Automatic annotation (TrEMBL):
Domain FAD dependent oxidoreductase: start-end pairs: 5-361
GO CC term, one of those recorded: cytoplasm
GO molecular function: oxidoreductase activity
Keywords in alphabetical order: Flavoprotein, Oxidoreductase
Protein family: Belongs to the DadA oxidoreductase family.
Cofactor(s) required, per the database record: FAD
Keyword Secreted: no
Alphabetized InterPro entries for the sequence: FAD-dep_OxRdtase, FAD-dependent_OxRdtase_HpnW, FAD/NAD-bd_sf
Protein name (record): FAD dependent oxidoreductase domain-containing protein
Length: 367
């Protein structure tokens, strides 16, 4: 009999989601994490569960289910939800048209369209150029760098998951997982490699042209700025499929391309979230062909200033996040053996969809 029903390689949000789904079925689970704790994409992001602007269908359904699990997990593991809801602000008439069209769809039914004056009532630091906005009540935000380790500890202490820290997964084998510290015997294996898909599913990586997307992220000290929720600017409307595929988005895309070609080339759109200490997490850019650099930071700060009036704001930290992208979206999935899966989220929505994906995979493996 195998020592474990399931071994999961990777303790980021997607790996933790698979482990949780398995424990809820009463399965015996082990997690292998090469670092003392997760320190890559899962802790380098906004910690933002985003519903507004998600595409109808499987992605939106996964976000809705993952949001339910996030609420359960944050309550059980004692993880603070720092912000609820999102304020999407428009600084162009074309952006406002996108929000109006979205608000009239079934996805926008719970959202509230706001004139400029109402935006400023809720968000005193909104810049003078804001022409309106939309409030979505369903978003959640945790501090990812704290929440991911907290979930791992909770799974270990409250759910009986065995955690092997500082241990590197090497290969999926018929009856378990080979690691640099020996073999782990398990009935099923899930590997969540992040951007390292080629190491465990080289054929999949080649077929889908899997590669890295690098994101520039900043932390600002901005005295006096208090957010009403996570704030998203109108460049984001061109990146989220639920907005970008609307008829009105074409005019916004044309205007942004003419006015901000450097931002478009760098994949910049701005989301602003607030931490418990009042600092602001601001990002991001999207680089597929090179490292992020000072240009990315300058473009992000330029767009931040167009959205938020924050005199005296200063950058106190900066980092680069990495997530996998591929021709196949939103998910790469491969079965190297009948009882194993290699899973990677390729649309940057691991925090928003991971818990649902974990449940789907465990259902496939265990019925």
């Amino acid at each position: 009999m195998a020592a474990f029903d399931l071994v999961v390689a990777g303790a980021g949000i997607l790996g933790l989601a698979h482990a949780l789904a398995a424990t809820r079925r009463g399965l015996k689970v082990a997690i292998v994490e090469r670092d003392p704790h997760a320190r890559r994409s899962s802790v380098q992001n906004f910690g933002f569960v985003t519903l507004a602007g998600q595409a109808e269908g499987v992605t939106r359904s996964r976000v809705l289910r993952s949001r339910e699990v996030w609420l359960e997990v944050t309550d059980s593991a004692g993880i603070p939800v720092l912000q609820r809801g999102a304020l999407l602000v428009a600084r162009r008439a074309e952006s406002l048209a996108v929000l109006e069209e979205y608000g009239a769809t079934p996805s926008g039914a719970r959202c509230e369209l706001l004139p400029a004056a109402a935006v400023r009532q809720r968000f005193a630091a909104a810049s003078a150029g804001i022409v309106g906005g939309l409030h979505s009540p369903d978003e959640l935000r945790v501090e990812a760098r704290d929440a991911i380790p907290a979930i791992l500890r909770w799974l270990e202490e409250a759910k009986g998951v065995t955690v092997h820290r500082g241990r590197t997964a090497l290969a999926i084998e018929a009856n378990g997982l080979a690691t640099d510290a020996g073999f782990i015997d398990a009935g099923a294996v899930v590997v969540v490699p992040g951007s390292n898909v080629a190491a465990f599913a080289p054929g999949l990586a080649t077929r889908t042209r899997a590669h890295d997307c690098r994101l520039q992220m900043l932390r600002l000290r901005a005295p006096g700025v208090e957010l009403p929720g996570v704030v998203m600017g109108d460049l984001s409307f061109l990146r989220y499929e639920g907005f970008a595929t609307l008829r009105s988005a074409a005019a916004l895309r044309e205007r942004v391309a003419a006015e901000q070609p450097r931002h478009v080339a760098a994949g910049v759109h701005v989301i602003v979230a607030q931490s418990a200490d009042g600092s602001l997490v601001v990002g991001d850019s999207h680089r597929y062909d090179r490292e992020c650099d000072s240009e990315d930071e300058a473009l992000i700060l330029d767009e931040f200033a167009a959205l938020v009036h924050a005199p005296g704001a200063e950058v106190v930290d900066r980092w680069t996040g990495i997530y996998p992208v591929a021709d196949a979206k939103p998910l790469l999935a491969e079965s190297p053996t009948p009882r194993s899966r290699v899973i990677a989220v390729t649309n940057g929505l691991g925090m928003s969809t991971g818990f649902a994906i974990g449940e789907e995979t465990i259902a496939e493996l265990f019925g």
